[in-house]
Structure formats: structure tokens, C-alpha cells
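Sequence only, no structure available. Ideas?
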Amino acid sequence: MARPRRREGRQEILRPAEGEARWRFALDGAGDGVWDWDGSADAMFFSPGYKTMLGYGAEEAIGDSFAAWADRIHPEDREGVLAAVNGYLDGTLPAYRVEYRIRRKDGQWMWVLARGTAVARDGRGRPSRMVGTHADITARKEAEAALKQSESRLRIIADHLPDSFLFQFVVSPDGEPGFAYLSGGVEEMTGLTQTEVLQDPLVLFHQMDPAMRPAYVEAEAASARDLTPFAMEFGILRKDGARRWVRVRSAPRRQADGALLWEGIATDITDQKLSQLLLEESERQFRSVVENAGDAIYLHDAEGRILLCNREACRSTGHALGELLRMGMAELDPGFLDGRNILAMRALEAGQQMSLTATHRRKDGSVFPVEIRLGLLRAEAPRQILAVVRDLSEREQLHESEVRTRKAESLVLMAGSIAHDFNNLFQGVLGYLEVARARAGGNAPLIPVLDGAQEALQKAIGLSWKMLDFSGRGLLDVRRMDLESWLPALLAVLQLEAPAHFQLDLVLALEPVPPIQGDPAKLEQVVRAVIDNAREAAGDRAGRVRLRLSTDFCQDRPGGDSQGFWPLARPEGPATVCLDIEDDGPGLPREALPLICDPFYTTKELGRGLGLAAAVGILRAHRAGLHLFNRGGKGLGLRIHFPPSGA
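Reply:
I predicted one. C-alpha cells follow.
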């Protein structure tokens, strides 16, 4: 950098007593020190305050040449300061004003603000003499440096915030939006650089899930209107196509010029959101399992107040959910508060699982046996106990059914053996009667007696055949049967035999049903027995029986949604040919369903004798299934499941 050029001809350095007006001008804007530089003499004058500022004595010589002054300038600042001096002397700079570091007497550096103005010019108009001041700005510079360092640290922290970025978003008084500041995390989160976002502040908005934008705009407007904090979670589509979840929190401030400034933080909450969604899905699945459990589930406190329960609890007790949540376990279980419950609580406190049997009461007052499995869900106060309650009614009914089945099987075997032996005896007696009638010859009075005996014997033989049918050991004339053609012909005959007030209807399947293997005569006996029972149950009132053919693909099976009783199990296989026979009578009590096929059970409505019992035996011989059920107050239903031909 060139040093200032000397003027031709030397002028005497200005002393304080000289040029009072000029010094007054200089002191008007003085800081801590005054300097006077005479370019023609290459001499500088420094005021006592100037010297004191640098740590010198007021009268101490500090070197009054331009070079001595330049040497005191910090090496890093020297070039810039000399350039400012020459720029002002050359007229390229309108004023001389520069900040730089200068060396004190003790070797320390201090910051000064130098200002100067020309007080004399040469013939070419160039400044030949300058007067100015130095102000100590070290404290300000140190504060600025500290602030800059702090800002740098904060910027580094902001740029390295995990999964987040800081921002300042401004909406000008005329509504123009823009980002005043963005930390570096914006690129990692959105895939957009700081430059891209600063150039187009709406690019982040366009990444937002379109379905969430209206809610975002509405929330932002409310925050701006009321100057309240803004917080929202939404999904975004990153620049690379990846989907992320973001939480934005900010606070608005009104600026002096009317602009609105939001300062906030945006955080990537994708992992948290996914965990939350997985937890919610897990909770939904758990609730679904609980709600669809076959057992009643209760959560109650130590006093028995019901806190939660599932759908099965409502179904099994007949109470609505709201009713159960206002009740205590003691209202369902009369033994809840007795010594049994105290022992159960002690076992639970010891960390044991507890299982016990009890009797629960339904809303209608009826009771049913239950098995209760208890677990301590929360040991600390307030204690919470989980009770899984299984209705044992079906288990007891199943046990009774098994006992009844074993008895029936024994009865079937006995009936079959007796019928077979009786039939052999009857055949012998019939032969003797035929011989006796042949030998009676002209003994006219004896003939009617023998005919009567033979007729009675034929009835006995018929009864023995019914007993064989009941046992399932009757002879079958099995052939391939098309029920879709066989049933209409049979019903036409049965309708002619029925009274006028009794109607038979047939509903055929939309799709053809498979043929079966069966004995037409025996199956006619089955249909007749069922229709006769329905007709007798109707009595003198109008009645109707509907027969319906269909193919069942395992929709109706024991243990499924169907209620009722299964005297004969459903045949194995994916499909069966179903014959439904339904009347419109009053139906039967639930406890009577298992009894109607018993040969020794009779009511006025169902008839008497071996009718249905024999029908069950015939169906057993056909390897068919039988399902009896009430039709919800619309009558009794009987569904026969035949295995398809070839199955």
C-alpha cells in the first residue's frame, strides 16, 4: 500500500495555540484522542488524550512520523487502513472513517474508531493536511466478538440439532412471506437446501400432506390473530420421496414495522409417530381380542367396582355396558364378599394365579355356573384385578349330552338286538299262523280269529322294524337320489293328505344341489315323521311347514354361531346337502331340545311313539347330521346334513 505523498514545500506543524477554530471543529466530534497530520512535512501531532489512550504519558514522545503511526497498526488491519487513507486523499472515498487495532505502549492491542477530515488542500485539490480523532471502541469490539462467538456457537448447535431445525419466519406488512433464518438441519429433514428454502419460502408448505394443509392454514391464522403459540404435527413428502412426520412449534411477535415474526423449531418425529401408530394398532388388536374373546372379562378394584368389561360380559349377564360399569362384582357374584374372595386376594398378593368356580346372576335373575381366573393387574393402590369368567353352562350341557348320548347308544344297541330277536320270533309265529289258517279248512268261526292274530302280528313286526330303524340297523335300499326332483313329488302327496288349514312350502336352492345316496322309502318316513309332529303341534289352527334345499359350506356346524342341539354330528367334508324343515309353531324350551328325539319323551305338541326317534336312527344309518334349533320365536327348525353322493 503506497504511503501518502508529500506536498512540495514544508509547513509548520500546527500547535494548540494556533488555528483555534480548526481545533474547535476537531474537538466537536472528538473521542478520546486528537491527531493532526501535515502531509507536506510528514509530521503528526497527537493530543495528550490520544497518548494517554495508548498508555503513554501526556508529554511522552511516541513517534510523530507517518511511518511510526503506520507501524503501530495491527498487521492484519494495516493494509485496509492505508487503503482508506489513500482512497480519501485520492478522492475515491468521500470520508475517512475506519476501525482498526493499534498497539499500546504495553504491547496490547486496542480497537479504535478513526475519523478525519481535510483542513487544507494543495493546488490540485488534494488534501494536504488532515485533522481527526481516535475513539476507544475496544469494549464494543470485544462485546461484538463475544456476541459473534456466541452466535457462532448457537449456529453450530442449531445446525447440529438432532432431527430438528430452527427458523425465523417473517410476514411483511404487505403480506409477503419469507424466512429470515434457517438452521442447517432443514436439509437433512426435508431434502431441501437452505438456499432453496430461502429463495422459495412456500416450498416447505408444498411438501406438506395436502389433507393437512387446511388445518395448518387455519391454525397459523389463529396464532397470528391472537399472537398465541403455534404447534402442529403433520406429514411431509421429502424431496427424495420419503414420507416423514414433523412437529412444528413457534411463537409469533409483532415487529415495530408491523411485520409478524415467528421463531420456532421443526422436529422430525417419524420414529416417535411410527411407535405411536404401532402402539395404537397394538392397542386396537388387544381391544379386538378382548372384545371378541369367548369369555367375559372384567377389570375391577379391590372393592369389586367394575372398571372395564368386554362385550361377552354384557351378553352373558344380559346387562348393558353402562349398567355393568355402575355395578359391583358382588351384584353378579353373590359370593364375592365371602371368605373365598379373601383367600383369592391373599393368593394374588403372593404372586399366584387364582382359579375358582362360582355362580353368577343374570339381569333376569337366572343364575349360571362360571369358572373365574383371577390375576393382579396392578399391585399398588388402587389395586386392579383382572377376572376372566367362563360360562360353564355349555360345558355342563355337553357333559349331560355325553351322558345322554352314552345312554342313547346303549339303548340303541339294546333296541336293535331286541328288535332283531323279536323279528325272528315274529317271523316264526307268522309262519305257524299261516299253516293254522290253511288247516282250518271249513272251520269258519276260526278263520276271523286267525286273521286277527295275523294282523296284530304284522303290526308287531312293523314295530320291530321301527325299532331297527331307531337303532340304525334297519335294512336300506340305497340308491342315488336327486332331492330336487324327489321332494316336490313327495310334498304333493303329503299336501293332499294334510288338512286344508295346513300348508307345505318348498324352496329350492338357486344353484343345483348335489345328489345323495339314500333310501327313498326310509327318507320319506323321516319327512313324514317331522311333518306329522308339526301338524299335531298346530292342532286346529292354521299351520305352515317350509322345506328348503341348499348346499352348506361349513356355515352351520357344532360350536359355530348356530344355537341349538345336534343329535347327530355334521358329516365330515367341505360341503353338505342341507334339507331344512321349519314350522311356524311356538318352538320349544331350550332344555327340551335334547329330549324330543328320546323315544320315551312325549308331549301333546310333539306326539308320541318312535316317530322322531326312528327318524334319527334312519338318518344315522345314512351317515347324516341333524341340527335342532328354535327360530327366535318363529317356530322350530330341523336341519338335516346329507353327505353328497361319492363323499
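Residues 160-274 form a domain with the Beta-Lactamase fold (CATH 3.30.450.20).
Hope that gets you unstuck.
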